[in-house]
Design goal:
This protein has 200 residues and is α+β, with helices and mostly antiparallel strands. The chain is built from three helices and eleven strands; from the N terminus they run βββααβββββββαβ. The chain has a single domain (4-195), classed as Phosphatase 2c, domain 1 (4-Layer Sandwich). It starts with a strand and ends in a 5-residue tail after the last strand.
């Protein structure tokens, strides 16, 4: 059984052909890593920084999330830097560890409320990966089959989280949120992942 189904939608700021907002979804038998990365500013340099961050995450994806961010920070020191949010999921234990540096919004929407509130918001810490890293503290949450994780970069208005639908198809949800809430003044990315292989 697949561990998750996901969809994403993104757009570059008008006048630029390449977006500095990237995503990563990596699944193995032991876990899942999901990340949304926003290169500072927009254009080629933002895209280069985001690609370097994604490469660092891919290389060490099975490390704890704090270690992943610290390694990204070291590798991005000569770039303009990125902000990012990421989540590491242990499907056997039904637990998710997530962390955000900067302003990439994160929301967990629960399929039912037995494990906690219907909606959990990621606590974001100010800083820039590659320039100024804040003290890092990850949050651990119980998760269950059917829960859905949303990441959105700052090209998406914060009001998107008030319009989430529990059973909406992830790709349709990503497309809808981008269409309805993109601000048009920066690159924008929406990543939606529904957990399908978590133990009950």
């Amino acid at each position: 059984m697949p561990l998750l189904e996901y969809g994403f939608a993104k757009s570059a700021v008008p006048g630029h052909g390449e977006s500095g907002d990237l995503h990563l979804v990596r699944c193995t038998r032991t876990g899942i890593l999901i990340a949304a990365i926003d290169g500072l500013g927009h254009g080629q340099q933002a895209a280069d920084a985001a690609r370097l961050a994604m490469s660092a995450l891919r290389a060490d994806f099975d490390e704890p999330v704090i270690s992943l961010v610290e390694r990204c920070h070291e590798k991005l020191r000569r770039t303009r830097g990125v902000v990012l949010s990421l989540a590491s999921i242990d499907p056997e234990k039904g637990m998710m560890t997530w962390l955000g540096v900067g302003n990439v919004q994160g929301v967990l929407m629960r399929a039912n409320c037995t494990n906690g509130p219907a909606q959990e918001m990621l606590l974001l810490r100010g800083g820039v990966v590659g320039a100024q890293l804040p003290p890092l503290q990850a949050t651990v949450l119980p998760i269950a089959r059917g829960d859905t994780l949303y990441f959105a970069t700052d090209g998406i208005g914060s009001g998107f989280s008030a319009n989430l639908v529990t059973l909406e198809n992830p790709q349709r949800a990503a497309d809808r949120i981008l269409e309805q809430f993109q601000l048009g003044i920066d690159d924008a990315l929406v990543l939606v992942a529904r957990l399908t292989g978590i133990h009950p």
